[in-house]
């Protein structure tokens, strides 16, 4: 892995660890992810709404998710615009691959 891609891999790793539970009830998980990452900064308000939904459903499971979610936001905000855009393209690509399978 190149040094330039390390921050994206860190975000993806945390996403895989907690994303399944966070997005389990979402109609379109990719749309939820894009909402979090679409703007120039991580959408913390949307992240907190997703977390609140999870915490009502699975309070014990939700506890470690919030600090990880906020850490992802910090990592994303620290990325340069090119890296942020690359992450968005990866989410879109993953969505297209999923659509092709279904």
Please give a structural write-up.
The chain has 102 residues and is mostly helical. The protein contains 6 helices and no strands. It has helices at 6-22, 29-37, 44-57, 59-62, 65-78, 81-101. The longest helix is centred in the last third of the chain and has 21 residues, at 81-101. The radius of gyration is 13 Å and the shape is globular. 20% of the residues are buried.
- What is the alpha-carbon Rg in Å? 13 Å
- Topology, number of strands: 0
- By DSSP (H or I, 4+ residues per run), the number of helices equals 6
Number of individual domains: 1
Binned strand content: under 5%
- Helix content, binned percent: over 70%
Outline, from the CA principal axes? Answer: globular
Name the poorly predicted regions.
none
Mean of residue pLDDT?
Answer: 87
The helix-and-strand class reads mainly alpha
Cα distance spanning the termini: 31 Å
Main sheet overview = none
């Amino acid at each position: 892995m190149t040094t330039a891609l390390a921050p994206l891999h860190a975000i993806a790793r945390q996403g895989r660890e907690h994303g399944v539970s966070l997005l389990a009830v979402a109609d379109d998980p990719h749309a939820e992810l894009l909402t979090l990452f679409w703007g120039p900064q991580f959408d913390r308000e949307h992240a907190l709404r997703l977390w609140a939904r999870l915490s009502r459903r699975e309070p014990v499971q939700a506890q470690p998710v919030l600090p990880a979610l906020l850490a992802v936001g910090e990592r994303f905000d620290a990325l340069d615009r090119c890296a942020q855009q690359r992450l968005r393209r990866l989410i879109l690509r993953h969505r297209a691959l999923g659509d092709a399978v279904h």
